[in-house]
Amino acid sequence: MNVRRRISAVALAGSAVLGLLAVSACSTSGAAGKEDGKLAVTASFYPMQFLAEKIGGEHVSVTSLTSPGTEPHDLELSPKQTAQLGESDAIVYLKGVQPAVDEAVKQSGVKHTADAASFTTLESHGAEVGGHDHGDEHGHEESHAGHDHGDESGLDPHIWLDPVKYAEAAKGVGKTLAAADPKHEADYEKNTAALVKQLDKLNQDYKDGLKNRKSDTFITTHAAFGYLAERYGLTEEAISGLDPEATDVSGSRVKDLQALARKHDVHTVFFETLTSPDMAKTLAKDVHAKTDVLDPIEGITKKSRGDDYLSVMESNLKALQKALGAK
User: Fold this and answer.
1) β partners of residue 39
2) Helical H segments across 19-45, by residue range
3) Which of 63, 176, 202, 237 has CA 20 to 30 A from 215's CA?
4) Where are the beta strands (DSSP E) in the chain?
5) Pairing mode, if any, of strands 113-115 and 90-93?
6) Interatomic CA distance for residues 62 and 274, integer angstroms
7) How far, in Å, CA of 79 to CA of 61, rounded?
8) By percentage, how much of the chain surpasses pLDDT 90?
């Protein structure tokens, strides 16, 4: 994420906080939960919304700060949204994805906040991630160069694309909701266990589905799938780094990818639904490959290959199986 965008996002969040009291009457989403007796939960973007809804069930009213079809990394909070945060009974977010949200949560004064990143371990990822080193073909520093994603630590926040890490986050969210609403603690625990079971099955589906494959390497537009690649012994080669809208891709990186595609028999270059597919299509044309969608599930839209996180992850598995020649 470029510096200008980060500064403007944080600045806007700060001004929104200053206007909190003046606009609190405009916010309806936070108050709605209280009016119908439900826990008012604000989620930062879709993967956090999914956790809150699945774990909270009938006891919560969940509102997402990021509308469907919006690239979450670009979110700039309105004063109304910042007011909504302050009125929440609980907040579920992922530090490092949306700087404006991180700043607003810090200033919200809400007692029960769940930072999904704090429930698991994060790693630094660059344009190449995985268990199969391609360092011989291009410089180590090039493949792991820092690509800022909003988190100043440089850590990769895409934990939701690894079912195991996402399950760890789910457990933490469940405890946060239970602390905010002790009366329904048993239900939150039950719902968390059910979701973790579904994620365990998803993890097994990926293990089994990718077991017998011809290739380990897949190419994406940006490095969202590092944890997934590491989990299943794959190598993700990204055209850019962690920033989904990066356009300053070096010529040497493009040459590296062309060589990698030919050497590792890569027939598919993946793009995603919420950002431009131009870079993927250009590279695919250069190496005579096809393009397909590998969805980082940052939001569900009409273009999504599924109607929720679990179904889109299954679609991603099918796309990977096809691209990697898995039987």
Assistant:
1) 60
2) 20-23, 29-35
3) 202
4) 39-43, 60-64, 90-93, 113-115, 128-130, 217-220, 235-238, 268-271, 290-293
5) parallel
6) 23
7) 21
8) 60
